[in-house]
Design goal:
The complex is a heterodimer of chains A (387) and B (291). Chain A is of the alpha+beta class. Chain A has 13 helices and 19 strands. In chain A, the strands form five sheets. In chain A, strands 1, 8, 9, 10, 11, 12 and 13 form a seven-stranded antiparallel sheet that branches. The longest helix of chain A has 17 residues. Chain A starts with a strand and ends with a helix. In chain B, helix 8 links the parallel strand 13 and strand 14. The two termini of chain B are 19 Å apart. Chain B is an alpha/beta fold and 291 residues long. Chain B has a seven-stranded mixed sheet with strand order 3-4-2-1-5-6-7, sandwiched between helices. A seven-stranded mixed sheet of chain B has the order 9-8-11-10-12-13-14, sandwiched between helices. Classes of the chains: A alpha+beta (387), B alpha/beta (291). At the A-B interface, helix 9 of A face helix 4 and helix 5 of B.
Chain lengths: 387, 291
């Protein structure tokens, strides 16, 4: 779960990391009121879960109330696309914060290194730009150091890292302190990625986190009540609906609705649909041991996406029983009405019983295919002709 | 032979008194796995269909001779249960539970390493050695004994491929689900090592997915250390960056962890990568015939 910048900064503040004071606003008037309170110059920053906001025009400095109004008006409601084509992300909120007198811009992060099974601290004196570019063009400018999981991470260890990164001598103690606290945030808040870019030194030689990119481990939310509340807010209507129904769903931008059981099989289904020339509308893992009710819920979510023009069911029953799935399809077509073409591939546990149930129900819009590849080709054909 | 589980496996199931634990534990027993104990704190002295239940895994080891532990306890209690298993004296711990916080696993990973205990999972379907033993939730009916070793991040995708191999008239030495979490006890490399040393494994099928760099690391290892042919499949070519695709570990971060990068890394080391599960099984069957 990714946090918005201001949520990340609130988390930093909770752990004693210095951040600029500010307020979040969802309307132009609120943004101007916040700017008036904070004083000028102030920064109006788009709150979206993606980097590259500055380049996209999502961060502006206001010198007075008129400018604050102008910038908030431009930024609220804009769509921001990420550097790797992510999104677009609609800006619903801005963060208004006091201007900072920047003397130096650094980079600091603590991330989970999956390969090494350790936390990894990274620090660079070259902050304020894309760190992947820094790493590619000047690898020595980025100091990477694994944190020993068996030892406490203290200021001595942290000071070594920030010193090696070549930060200004008079900022080393404060920067080391920040790094120790970032590691504390990682451990205590179950954050798998914390990135501060830039970490600035002000003219008064204070070290402040000017940005915050934080990813919280979704599996840890049972022990973080405050963060769990953030996780409950989802923008996309289908994703919200899926969440309420306890389904694992990811919205994509195509027109072929997909339901499969198991995350791997579902990803693979998206791939074969794409290979067949189609565009998947979603990822939806009905889960192991799927029961009829879960199928009804899943179909409701898929169907509520107006772009969907045909649906593919790709089920390989292991623990999941195909007769349960078939019952779910029949129940759903009675309960919610299914006019869209539906391609069903049932294989594995109780597949014969499942196929018999579907044959007996004789649904006019249902097409059966024996293999995953045939089913993918068929659904692409039907989605195309229905569109 | 086979790897990790076989006729000498003596299994203790933590969570055997729960609904899922008893269903799958007893299924494993019915398959022929030597299920010697259940473990549930506070329920020592009871039994589940004749299988004695102990309060601790240590007792299951000393009283019932367990050498393998399967963890079926809910996510928030699972890491302590795995840690208990690591310290109990068993050789192998297989953790099925999904949803364990990754920092808990980070700690547990190093505990297992230090103790020299083989940890499989979490968030995995377990290990099946067809005809010998099944520990976990893999539906054994889709797998026959044979010369192909399978190692996979995904459950259902493995069943799909296993079933196609069976229809192609071949089978498996073992099937190992390593799990879909960011940190798992055993990576592809750990299992590839075992298959390389297993005389009954002639060919290896490796099933990966987006996220992390375990497949890229495996590609390097295969080139350097594996003499047996390896066929791979990678899921998630159409996954968008920054979105978690079901498994906690299945996420493209920025530009890293993509399916294309994994496929390229494997192919660069001479590993054939199937376009679909069906093609992957077909390549494996064909390569096996030409061995």
């Amino acid at each position: 779960m990714d946090l918005l910048e201001y949520q990340g900064k609130q988390l930093f503040a909770k752990h004693g990391i210095a951040v600029p004071s500010g307020e979040v606003a969802a309307t132009v008037d609120d943004a101007v009121a916040a700017a008036e309170k904070i004083g000028y110059p102030c920064a109006i920053k788009a709150q979206v879960l993606i980097g590259g906001r500055g380049k996209a025009g999502g961060i502006k400095i206001a010198q007075n109330a008129d400018e604050a109004r102008e910038h908030a008006d431009a930024i609220l409601g804009m769509d921001i696309v990420g550097p790797h084509g992510e999104g677009p992300f609609r800006v619903d909120q801005v963060w208004v914060e006091g201007g900072s007198d920047i003397a130096e811009e650094y980079y600091a992060s603590v991330i989970l290194d999956r390969g090494e099974k350790k936390l990894l601290a990274m620090v660079s004196a070259k902050g304020g730009m894309d760190i992947e570019t820094v790493a590619a063009e000047d690898p020595d400018a980025l100091v990477k150091r694994h944190i020993d999981p068996t030892q406490p991470f203290d200021t001595t260890a942290a000071r070594g890292i920030v010193a090696d990164a070549g930060l200004a001598e008079d900022a080393l103690d404060a920067a080391a302190e920040v790094l120790v606290k970032l590691e504390e945030v990682a451990r205590e808040e179950d954050a798998n990625l914390i990135e501060v870019n830039p970490l600035i030194v002000t003219a008064g030689r204070e070290v402040i986190a000017l940005d915050a990119k934080v990813t919280i481990d979704g599996n840890s939310l049972f022990r973080h009540q405050d963060l769990a509340e953030i996780a409950d807010t989802v923008d996309d209507p289908q994703e919200q609906m899926a969440k309420e129904k306890g389904l694992t769903y990811v919205k994509l931008d195509g027109n072929v609705g997909i339901l499969a059981n198991g995350a791997g099989l579902c990803m693979s289904t998206l791939d074969v649909v794409a290979q067949a020339g189609g565009k998947p509308a979603n990822f939806l893992d009905a889960g192991g041991g799927s029961k009829a009710e879960a199928i009804v819920n899943a179909l409701e979510v898929i169907k509520s996406d107006a772009k969907v023009s045909a649906i593919l069911f790709n089920i390989f029953g292991g623990i999941t029983r195909c007769d349960e799935i078939a019952n779910g399809i029949v129940t759903a077509s009675q309960q919610i009405g299914l006019e869209l073409p539906l391609v069903v591939r049932l294989d594995g546990t109780n597949s014969e019983e499942g196929l018999e149930i579907l044959a007996a129900a004789d649904l006019p819009n249902l097409h059966q295919e024996k293999t995953m590849l045939d089913a993918a080709r068929r659904v692409v054909e039907l989605a195309g002709s229905a569109a | 032979m086979s790897i990790i589980v076989d006729g000498s496996t003596k299994l203790a199931v933590s969570g055997l008194t729960g609904r899922e634990g008893s269903f799958h534990g007893l299924r494993n027993k019915a398959y022929g796995t030597d299920l010697v104990a259940g473990v549930t704190p506070g329920k020592g002295g009871q039994d589940v269909e004749g299988v004695p239940v102990f309060d601790t895994i240590k007792e299951a080891v000393t009283e019932a001779g367990a050498n393998t532990s399967m963890i079926f306890v809910p996510a928030r209690f699972a890491a302590p249960a795995i840690n208990e298993a690591i310290e109990s004296g068993v050789e192998t711990v297989i953790a099925i539970t999904e949803g364990i916080p990754v920092l808990d696993m980070l700690e547990t990973y190093w505990k297992a390493k230090e103790a020299g205990v083989r940890l499989i999972g979490p968030n995995c379907p377990g290990v099946l050695s067809p005809g010998k033993a099944n520990v976990g939730i893999i539906p054994a009916q889709f797998f026959d004994p044979g010369p192909i070793g399978v190692v996979s991040k995904s459950g259902t995708l493995t069943y799909q491929i296993g079933n196609e191999l069976k229809q192609a008239g071949t089978g498996n030495s073992s099937i190992v689900g390593i799990g879909g979490d960011p940190i798992v006890g055993s990576d592809f490399i750990d299992i590839l090592k075992l298959y390389e040393a297993d005389p009954d494994t002639e060919l290896i099928v490796m099933v990966g997915e987006i996220g992390g760099d375990a497949e890229e690391r495996a590609a390097e290892f295969i080139a350097a250390e594996v003499s047996k042919p390896v066929v791979a499949y990678i899921a998630g070519f159409t996954a968008p960056p920054g979105k978690q695709m079901g498994h906690a570990g299945a996420i493209i971060s920025g530009s890293s962890g993509t399916a294309q990068a994994k496929k390229d890394a494997l192919e660069a080391k001479g590993v054939r990568v199937g376009e679909s599960p069906t093609e992957t099984a077909a390549i494996a069957a064909e390569m096996l015939r030409s061995l």
